[in-house]
Design a protein that fits this description.
Layout lengths: L1 E5 L2 E5 L1 H10 L8 H31 L5 E5 L2 E6 L6 H29 L5 H21 L7 H10 L4 H21 L3 H15 L8 E2 L1
Parallel strand pairs: 2-3
Antiparallel strand pairs: 1-2, 3-4, 4-5
Helix pairs in contact: 1-2, 2-3, 2-4, 3-4, 3-5, 5-6, 6-7
Length: 213
């Protein structure tokens, strides 16, 4: 298990994170050395992108005086805020800070694309394309109103504690739809992931002793 500190925040990376990112990067079908280079590049870009996303949450929480720990795991990443006492507006800000960081990184990557789109370095082109995919597509998906993703947390705060069950029903229903779509597309890991999210929403699960972003 890898542990380090960045910008004053403790980061823990579980071994399962590397495995899942390798699978997303095409490790199952990799045969040649070029294929494996692409897998390694994908893992590297995913690691940086998800870490930047979680740092967005951590910095957002720090703005309101709360310290965080970042965990990268098989489902992506999470920022644990053990003693969070946020108002609804502050909670929305902290939830939105992660996607904002992702879109910011996507913007920086797009500028790099403009300058290097004709480069002869295949690895650099791969890094740029992977970064755009992760920081645009994954960030947009993360904003779906499904807990525990950021969009679901934002919806829950917008509806308020009296309508938390409604937020869970919306999130659970949408998670089932996405899971079924993923099954039809043959994307079994996303199907499992959103099926798990559906269970979380319909069971109205919550994190005890802290807040996860």
């Amino acid at each position: 298990m890898l542990q380090f500190t960045v910008m004053g925040f403790q980061v823990v990376v579980q071994p399962f994170f590397w495995l899942i990112m390798a699978l997303f990067g095409g490790a199952i079908s990799a045969r040649t050395s070029d294929d494996w280079i692409q897998v390694v590049l994908f893992i590297f870009v995913a690691f940086v992108s998800i870490l930047v996303h979680e740092l967005g949450h951590a910095l957002g929480a720090k703005k309101f005086g709360e310290h965080s720990t970042i965990l990268l795991h098989g489902f992506g990443g999470a920022t644990y805020i053990p003693r969070a006492r946020f108002t609804r507006g502050q909670s929305i800000f902290v939830s939105a800070a992660g996607p904002f960081a992702g879109f910011l990184l996507a913007g920086i990557t797009f500028i790099a694309f403009i300058f290097f789109r004709h480069t002869e370095y295949v690895g650099l082109r791969s890094i740029i394309s992977i970064s755009l995919w992760i920081n645009v597509v994954w960030t947009v998906m993360n904003l779906l109103p499904i807990m525990p993703m950021d969009g679901g947390n934002i919806l829950r705060e917008l509806l308020g504690p009296r309508r938390e069950r409604l937020a869970c029903m919306i999130g659970g229903t949408l998670a089932v739809i996405v899971a079924l779509w993923a099954i039809q597309a043959g994307a079994f890991y996303p199907a499992f992931l959103f099926g798990y999210f559906a269970w979380i929403n319909f069971s109205n699960g919550s994190t005890e002793g802290g807040v996860m972003k």
